[in-house]
Design brief:
With 138 residues, the protein is mostly beta strands. It contains 1 helix and 9 strands; from the N terminus they run ββββββαβββ. The strands form 2 sheets. The protein has a 6-stranded antiparallel beta sheet with strand order 4-5-6-9-8-7, with helices on one face. It has a 3-stranded antiparallel beta sheet with strand order 1-2-3, with no helix packed on it. The longest helix is centred in the last third of the chain and has 17 residues. The chain is globular. The model has no long low-confidence stretch (mean pLDDT 83).
Amino acid sequence: MFKKKYLINIDPLSGIFTDQKGKVLLNPMDFVGNLPQSQNGSYPAVKVFELEAEDGVLLSAAVWNMQNRMVIELSASHEKFGSDWSSWSKESELEKLEWLKSCLDSAGTPVGNYKFGNVTANFDPKGGFSSAWLSYST
């Protein structure tokens, strides 16, 4: 089991991300109507921040628009989770999933429904990856 690492705080009312010192890392409202549109009508992800945890895991966030909902996807990368497809394993992806859930827990927004929208964390067996999503009602 992972020790809870305090990297970020996510306000359960607004969904605003802050760092340990209270600096705003991501305000979802800054992106409403401001995401670039690609030629095929979908919205590409905009990388917002990367933070390194005490255990060396790199947490990154990207914002994108999906079916008229703004989504922030959190992902984690570290050698212990596999660094490429040749070192990929389901076990390491499930370990990554637990790390992401622990991060959400310590941020004050475990998986669930909130005023701003909902928080999920899943392993996608077809895609072979784990991630956490914050879906905002716009």
